[in-house]
Amino acid sequence: MANQVLYGFYSLKDLFNDRLTTTSGEVVANAIQQSVDEHNRQINAIMGLFADPTTDYTGRFLTPGTHRLQPLDENGRALPVKFAGHYDVAFPIRDAGSAWGANYKTMAKLTVADANRITGEMLKADALWMRDQLMAALFASATHTFVDAQWGSLTIQPIANGDSVTYSRTGGGAAAVDTHQLFYNNSIADVTDPFSTWVTELTEHPENTGDVVILIPTNLVSAVQALSAFHAVADPNITPGANTDTLNGSLGVALPGKLLGYHEAGAWIAEWKALPSNYVLGTTTQGERALKMRQEPEAELQGFHLAGERNDHPYYERQWVRYAGFGAFNRVNAFVALVGAGAYAVPTGYTPPIS
Questions:
Q1: pLDDT tens-place string over residues 138-177
Q2: 35: which of 8, 218, 266, 332 fits an S-S bond (Cβ 3.0–4.6 Å)?
């Protein structure tokens, strides 16, 4: 973010060379706060593809029922039924932060541009930490224990991993165990196109609705774009000629990457450069999100925010913090697939809990 002008600093670009000591402190403080507020809005929008916020430490997911009407005679009364099954989950919460500091002399030399750059570095640190925590929750292959200071040991579930939990099926079929931690031991090509299978993994569950979105890493982009069933998003700078297929639809949700196009199996495809090579993620745009993002119930402890300042001559310091954690909720509204391997394995560095 070294050369990026943050949202709150756009109106101050003509002051970038001015010293902070000669600029209104309130003006700079407002620019920083506006930048943080916009950062939190964007983080929430992107995280919203996979996670809904909660202040609860545990939850119960109610699965759709599969019962049918009971046959009755003219005097019959139906027996009461339970309309939904369920499974229980829990959510961690972790404390993380960053800080910047200066001494008396350094503070005197700081400019408005420096304030923009330093704030940008703090926001980037938060975005990377949140991304890592989200990915670790999606990539997890097994339960792990989180020791909560108030509630004790909590068992954090991964997305569906073939354990004893059963999940409903579209069409009213019997609920069954499932795994959404997949592997695909082939290259991606027309004769070995996995997208239909991946789409089915999500759409076979009635709790998942809306569009299917599949995020791919950079190393798989060329192979996916070469598929005959793939249709690229039109370049707004190019007008297609005659006899050319044109993708007319659009996807109205925020993505953590670049939208590439649409696959005929029924999935929007986007490149997420942060994904480890050969790892694919998928979800749907409606229904309960795959994860919950736990945060503190107190409003002043939510989001990325300034926690405190130190002004102890000759030192000056600002502390920024985030309190958040991710755990599975709708365990079948996401899948992860490892391409080119004979078994699924969590990518290096993403086995929860991570720091």
A1: 999 999 999 999 999 999 999 999 999 999 888 777 889 9
A2: 8
Contact 256, 46 (CB under 8 A): yes
3-state class (DSSP) for residue 220: helix
Q: CB of 319 within 8 A of CB of 125?
A: no
191-206 per-residue burial string, b: 16 or more CB within 10 A, e: under 16: eebbbeebbebbbbbb
* DSSP 8-state symbol, 3: T
Q: What span, in angstroms and rounded, lies between the C-alpha atoms of 277 and 281? A: 12
Beta strand 315-328 pairing with 94-103: antiparallel
Render pLDDT for 180-200 as a digit per residue (tens, 0 to 9). Answer: 999 999 999 999 999 999 999
Cα separation, 266 vs 117, in Å, equals 42
pTM of the full structure: 0.89
Show the tokens assigned to 41: 């809005």
Show the tokens assigned to 64: 């759709």
Question: Which residues, at least 6 apart from 206, have a Cβ–Cβ distance to it below 8 Å?
Answer: 64, 168, 169, 170
Question: 314 CB contacts (<8 Å, ≥6 apart)?
Answer: 103, 104, 105
What the block records as the tokens of 217 is 């890493």
Task: Return the H-helix or E-strand segment holding 46.
Answer: helix 25-47
